[in-house]
Amino acid sequence: MDDPTGGERIKLNVGGKLFETTVSTLRSGGPDSLLSALSNRPAHDPVFIDRDPGIFSTLLSLLRSNRLPSTAKRFSNQELIDEAIYFGIESQLRSALAPTRLNGIDASVFTTVKPSSDGVVSDFNAIESDGSLWVAHGGQITVYDWNLSHTETVRTHLDFITSVRRIHSEIAAVGSLNGSGLHLYNTANGRRVHSAEWVDPSDVRIYKARVHAIADSDDSIFASYNCHHGENCILMLDKSTMRVSSEIGRITGNSSKNMVPTKLKYVPEMGILIGSSVTSGSFGYAGYIRLWDPRTRNVVWETNEPGSGRSSRFGDSFADTDVDIDELSLFKICSKSGDLAMADLRKLSDDPWVYLKEKNPSMSNLGGNGGGNFAVHCYRKQVFVGREGELEVWSRIEGNDENEGVYMYRRNCVDKLEDSERGAIKKIEGGGDRLFVTRENVEGIEVWQSSHNSGVVSVL
Prior knowledge:
Strand content: 35-45%
Number of helices: 6
Mean pLDDT: 88
Structural class: mainly beta
Number of strands: 32
Radius of gyration: 26 Å
Oligomer: single chain
Low-confidence stretches: 454-460
């Protein structure tokens, strides 16, 4: 068998156990895999490979059927990954282990990621492309890969990190309300590679400004800074040089509509940066949403609640906001009524809000009253809402008549009663086909996934 064809058989001796398969099966691992190389060897005697035969049997079944057999449950994911890397078929295993498409109406808690020390997570960044996770806890950054396996932990010079964002494959940007500046760390070697402070030689008060929020685009980093006397701005840094390239939206910060942005998000399709800030007190909620063009540094639209007269529900200020960058929509949740509203980013006006109509009769009386903690996150054309400890999802119904300004959404609970009792939801963020949730003063990050066995079909 000097020139074996795909249908011919070949024998392998793995860890003392004899396996017989076809050349085409081995080559399905890809041309650069070890198994593909072995398929080209003459078949006089079985090739001996000193690896675990049980795991190899599982991987061989994967190559035959493109899915893992039930026997794979005998091994940990990391054991399977280590062997797949050895044989050069990690991409096939990665596809088999990946969760099914995230559908909020069929999601449940799959696991909890908990750092080994300082388990209460202060902030995290979930990566949409692969579902990996960058976690800030105490003064540390911990990275989990696509399989949520721990890859590295970096101890920073900060005592307590309050903002974290992955900037490059091995670079994290962090900020702290307890220390000044934006700091970039290489998580591969643990070294701080750059720091950016907000300084103004003409104003000595601009000193030791704290970072409250971080966002990024393909070529820039955006960070909101706040000084002790309340003056704040957004600094834009060039990713290639890590140097400050522009100062955006500098304001005094002496009222709720001038507070430092605590949320930032860049919308690539429109080239705009969206910032928001919300405060609460004895008189309720107050805040703003503001859109900037980073190229001109000008404000292109803004709204303030209460006080601007731009909301048809005066006195029902928003408690949280988020942006759907796929649908180019802006969402807010009202602090008193608990209603969810949206605005089209392409059609912003003095009062652009459309309040979503509940079409699920079983949900019409749930969560209707405001108060308490709220969190909103848009992901994969779904809107996830946290109300205290409860998690719900809003899914758009096909066939809406947008010309009439009516948007129909179906609202469903994501969690069970025991889930909602774990504590108030602090942050929601999607990454890959997972949803990550943190709760106030609760250790770890909940990982929500949809079931492979679900019969639910999304209408999105």
